[in-house]
């Protein structure tokens, strides 16, 4: 019965190990693809991240062009105002990506590169301790059999007692590792809903980012469009005067 129970435990642990390894692989792959979607450089501070964004480069180019053309130019004025809006959008993107990194990417990386590997390492350690226990127990059983058939009973008994201590020590190490592994595995699977939540948080963060970006655009567009309208009117007036003079 104990052999059947051990075999069942081994198969059960192997099935859990396979599932955890699968979770590790898919988490690692997803983390890698998420990082590839970021426009900023991961792990850098806010200022450096903002400077490296393509939107920031676009904003700078537009504002530089606006300064070169001057405010008397409608194109220059629009480039400067729109460039400022792009810079504000870049700030929203930077904040969004830093939030993604902190709330989603870092926990996923922790799960894939530390938490699961540590549990799997402990599982392999348990397998080694089980072998150590089996080996110690086999030597002890052989020693007890030798007492019955041997002549130097006192010496054989002392050896058997020493081996029994090794068996007890090996069993204690095995049980401690098993208890710790069971606790860690239980803790892992009890947090499965938290791990699944990361993917929902990604969509929520994206929705929040797009809402803020849309709000920003809607707040600046009326002013920009009004300035464009005034410039168009001024151009039409100049065109009419030029035409009448000719």
From TrEMBL:
It is found in: Cytoplasm. One of its GO terms (cellular component) is cytosol. SMART domains: BAR. This is Rho GTPase activating protein 17a. Keywords: Coiled coil, Cytoplasm, GTPase activation. It comes from the Eukaryota. InterPro entries: AH/BAR_dom_sf, BAR_dom, RHG17/44/SH3BP1-like. Residues 153-180 form a coiled coil. Residues 1-233 form the BAR domain. Its main location: cytoplasm. PROSITE patterns: BAR. One of its GO terms (molecular function) is GTPase activator activity. GO terms for biological process: regulation of actin cytoskeleton organization; regulation of Rac protein signal transduction.
């Amino acid at each position: 019965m104990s052999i059947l129970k051990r075999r069942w435990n081994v198969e059960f642990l192997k099935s859990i190990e396979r599932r955890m390894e699968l979770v590790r692989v898919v988490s690692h792959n997803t983390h890698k693809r998420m990082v590839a979607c970021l426009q900023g450089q991961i792990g850098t501070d806010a200022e450096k991240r903002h400077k490296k964004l393509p939107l920031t480069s676009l904003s700078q180019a537009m504002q530089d062009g606006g300064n070169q053309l001057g405010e008397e130019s409608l194109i220059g004025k629009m480039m400067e105002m729109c460039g400022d809006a792009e810079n504000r959008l870049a700030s929203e993107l930077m904040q969004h990506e830093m939030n993604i990194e902190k709330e989603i990417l870092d926990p996923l990386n922790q799960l894939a590169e530390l938490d699961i590997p540590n549990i799997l390492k402990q599982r392999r350690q348990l397998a080694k301790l089980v072998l150590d226990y089996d080996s110690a127990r086999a030597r002890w059983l052989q020693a007890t059999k030798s007492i019955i058939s041997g002549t130097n009973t006192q010496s054989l008994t002392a050896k058997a007692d020493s081996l029994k201590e090794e068996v007890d020590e090996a069993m204690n190490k095995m049980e401690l590792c098993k208890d710790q592994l069971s606790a860690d595995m239980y803790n892992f699977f009890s947090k499965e809903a938290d791990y699944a939540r990361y993917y929902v948080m990604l969509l929520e963060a994206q929705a929040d980012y797009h809402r803020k970006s849309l709000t920003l655009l809607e707040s600046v567009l009326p002013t920009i469009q009004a300035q464009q309208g005034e410039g168009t009117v001024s151009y039409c007036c100049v065109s009419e005067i030029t035409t009448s003079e000719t």
